[in-house]
From TrEMBL:
It comes from Patella caerulea (Rayed Mediterranean limpet). InterPro entries: Exonuclease_MUT-7-like, Mut7-C_RNAse_dom. Residues 24-125, 192-225 form the Mut7-C RNAse domain. Transmembrane segments: none annotated. This is Mut7-C RNAse domain-containing protein.
Length: 248
């Protein structure tokens, strides 16, 4: 009779799969890399910062109803506070293998549309799709704001400042054009982080509506798909990862 390894005994096997977005976890400081991998697969992940101790993870897990991921002695401490159903002891070595273990244990079905469906910076799952032409307008507006030294200007200060343009960005994107912030989250759009040459090379950009970080599809998407090809559920849908979020 085959003897099961400790990891095999921990894996739950059943027919009820769940999507990555349904799994809500918090990773303590020992599993920060694991958390980033899980987030790249679409899991709702809160990652503890280096200065935050395990008590913060416990509080976040209880308050936000997240499963706490930990390992070793810290896991034992967490277990004593929240119980077995509210935490999980990760025993694999290496962030990628640890993420795979978690996905398999919780029976998470990952598809290509889940890859990078969450912002890698803030964990947000809302994106605004924007063509390069409008991104160019935002870039020019940013240059004007920096050059003027003023972040809140009237909408008559330069050729890009007019009421119709301001209204269009507000209605289409939920963006306050005068200071380049999202009206709902008040997050500044981080247009300055994009090389100007890149704006004309990419057809579509995807802006996180929670933190303002700007993304576009590139080799990083294929790399994550390759790393998790052993658990990735392939589909025939001809769509990109961010469009899937926008249309869901």
């Amino acid at each position: 009779m085959k003897r099961l390894s400790a990891l095999e005994k921990k894996i739950v096997h059943n027919d009820e799969y769940q999507s990555p977005g349904k799994l809500r976890v918090v990773c303590d400081t020992m599993l920060q890399g694991t958390g980033r991998y899980l987030r790249s697969c679409g899991v709702d992940v809160k990652i503890m910062e280096n200065h935050e101790d395990h008590d913060v993870a416990i509080q976040s897990g209880l308050k936000e109803e997240r499963i706490i991921l930990s390992s070793g002695n810290p896991y034992k401490k967490i277990l004593s506070h929240v119980g077995q159903d509210a935490c999980y002891d990760v025993i694999s070595q290496g962030a990628q293998d640890q993420a795979t273990e978690v996905l398999r244990h919780f029976n998470v079905k990952v598809t290509p549309q889940d890859i990078f469906s969450r912002c890698q910076v803030c964990n947000g799952d809302e994106y605004v799709k924007m063509p390069s032409s409008d991104m160019t307008i935002l870039s020019d507006r940013k240059d004007f704001l920096i050059g003027s030294g003023d972040t809140v200007l009237s909408l008559t200060s330069n050729p890009y400042d007019n009421q119709s343009l301001s209204k269009r960005f507000e209605e289409e994107y939920g963006i306050e054009f005068s200071n380049l912030t999202f009206m709902k989250s008040q997050a500044f759009i981080k247009i300055e982080l994009i090389p100007k040459a890149m704006i004309t090379k990419v057809d579509w950009f995807y802006v996180c509506a929670t933190c303002g970080k700007i993304f576009w599809e590139g080799s990083h998407f294929s790399r994550i798909c390759d790393q998790f090809s052993h658990i990735l559920t392939l589909t025939e849908q001809d769509t990109n990862i961010y469009d899937h979020i926008l249309n869901s």
